[in-house]
Amino acid sequence: MLVIPAIDLRNGKCVRLIEGRLDRETIYSEQPVEMARHWQESGAKYLHIVDLDGAFAGTLKNLPVIKEIVTGFKIPVQVGGGIRDLETIQMLLDLGVQRVILGTAAIAQPEVVRQAVQQFGEQVVLGIDARDGMVAVQGWAVASDITVLDLANQMKAIGIKRVIFTDIRRDGTLKGPNLEATGELARQTGLKVIASGGVSSLEDLRKVKQLAGDGVEGVIVGQALYTRAISFEDALEICHPDYVVSPGIL
């Protein structure tokens, strides 16, 4: 299983939000590029970047920072937040981003997702952010009327192979990941799943790893790393430090 450090960008800084709320923000670094360097030097094999400003605005807002990270380091990067058209997807992939994450577009513009999958294959990843089993969009600010499983199956039908699943009520809280919902998503859809939200301890990582047989192939960790609740070295030891990642594919 792959453990992936998260870099959430807001106003050019590396931050974490509790439950996706802008009024509950903690700034962990004024220099996100240096944070990316730290994770690469620590042995990370993939990096998860979210443009929080972009997620709320509907268009990328931290592109200069993303570009500097992608072009400045060898570590593969996946990017989400405000990506809602083919032109932006093409631009990011041309820049060197390995995977793009589509969330709001899956509900508002499913045809864009279909075309993106046809053109770019597994470099397109579905991002599902959920609150109480229902999908939330536009930076988690708007609740939809579709369930996690329904959206996942709809996107699978048009070619999506991989999904990043975040339980919003767990994100940034250090309350532990939603193991039940994560495992169910993998089992019920057959999609490759990357867990996100709530990891607080090495024991949480061990529990997520137990879902590998169901199709959970990775876990994104943010708050626990930045607060030093867990060390990345210990996380790697649990999650197979010898894991080999091919470009664009876990």
Short structural summary:
This protein has 250 residues and is α/β, with parallel strands linked by helices. Helices cover 37% and strands 27% of the residues.
| Largest sheet data | 8 strands, parallel, barrel
Strand content: 25-35%
Instruction: Say what oligomer this is.
Output: single chain
CATH architecture annotation name? Alpha-Beta Barrel
How many angstroms does the end-to-end distance come to? 9 Å
CATH top level label: Alpha Beta
Helix percent reads: 25-40%
Written as H for each helix and E for each strand, in order along the chain, the element string is EEEHEHHEHEHHEEEHEHEHEHH
Q: CATH fold name, please?
A: TIM Barrel
C-alpha geometry: globular
Number of DSSP strand runs: 12
Low-confidence stretches: 246-250
Over all CA atoms, what is the radius of gyration? 16 Å
Q: What is the averaged pLDDT score? A: 90
Tell me the CATH superfamily. Answer: Aldolase class I
> Order of strands across the widest beta sheet?
1-4-5-6-7-10-11-12
Description:
This protein has helices at 32-41, 52-57, 63-72, 86-95, 104-108, 110-120, 148-157, 179-189, 202-209, 223-226, 232-238; strands at 2-10, 13-17, 25-29, 47-51, 77-80, 99-102, 124-131, 134-137, 142-147, 162-167, 192-196, 216-221. By secondary structure, it is an alpha/beta fold. The chain has one domain (2-238): Alpha-Beta Barrel (TIM Barrel), CATH 3.20.20. Strands 1-4-5-6-7-10-11-12 form an eight-stranded parallel beta barrel, surrounded by eight helices. Helix 1 runs parallel beside helix 3 (63-72). The N and C termini lie close together (9 Å). Mean pLDDT is 90; it is low at 246-250.
